[in-house]
Recover the amino acids of this structure.
């Protein structure tokens, strides 16, 4: 119970401080207003909520115009609706490209960071293996010394 509460507090503290991972700091915290806006819009456009709402609005638009309510402001073949779709597509494409470019940038930063961390880990592994080798050599020397003191079988060497 207490561990869960501590994790929750820790998560809230991280949320208040912002993104802690170096890649996220560059990608999110240092993003311009336009970049954050493009990410938000792209996330909205790529959601089921957007698809359901847009589909509902289109069905409502077509139904109202076919049934003749509100003086048929956009009679068949729905030229105004087509114009609205064209305008939406004209803005959606570049916004999605901006968000995609930002994701590519984040992926590149993530790979660079992972490579740097891998290099650090490799250096640490070499250092650890070197220490193990030294300790093994010392252990072998101690073993030989003990065998010589005990008059063991390797004393004739």
């Amino acid at each position: 119970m207490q561990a869960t509460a501590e994790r929750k507090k820790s998560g809230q503290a991280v949320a208040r401080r912002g993104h802690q991972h170096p890649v996220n700091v560059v990608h999110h915290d240092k993003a311009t207003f336009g970049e954050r806006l493009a990410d938000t819009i792209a996330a909205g456009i790529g959601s089921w909520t957007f698809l359901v709402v847009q589909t509902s609005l289109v069905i409502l638009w077509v139904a109202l115009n076919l049934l003749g309510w509100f003086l048929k402001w956009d009679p068949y073949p729905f030229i105004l609706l087509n114009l609205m779709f064209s305008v939406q597509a004209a803005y959606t494409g570049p916004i999605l490209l901006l968000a995609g470019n930002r994701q590519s940038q984040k992926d590149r930063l993530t790979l660079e960071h992972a490579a740097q961390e891998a290099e650090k880990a490799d250096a640490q592994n070499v250092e650890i293996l070197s220490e193990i080798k030294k300790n093994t050599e010392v252990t072998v020397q101690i073993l030989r010394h003990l065998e010589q003191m005990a008059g063991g079988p390797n004393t004739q060497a």
About this structure: The mean pLDDT is 83. Residues 17-124 form one domain.
